[in-house]
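pinned: reference chain
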Amino acid sequence: MIAWAGRLIVFFGAAHTILALTLEGAARYAGDWFSGALWHDDLSAMSPANSALWLSLDSFGIPLVMVGLTVLWLDRRDLTPPPFFAWMLGAWTVLGALIMPLTPWPIMAIATGLLVAGARRAVPAPETAKTV
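pinned: its structure tokens
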């Protein structure tokens, strides 16, 4: 369960970044990003190049890939990710779903559910009273 959650998180983050760069065409502004054109850009009135940067490379996509890879790394070592991973991911997913319901947030909801279920399965059963 935890491995599938990690894979879904990596997929979601990578897909967001790659699709923003390609399908949405954000990569066409790469010249502006690396030329210093954004250094004095007004964030309250973003230029198309700045908006494209925030949609792609500076979005949540790359950090989500890192979170997903961390979950997979922990799982390969038979370590359970801390519960706050699942709860923070779940809270963020609900917030995103409320703000923009027509996005692929259900993928992250499934990943959250898998993390919660995997963490519950990994919790050792309470020890019973020992008799000597």
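why pinned: The CA atoms of residues 9 and 68 lie 5 Å apart. The mean pLDDT is 92.
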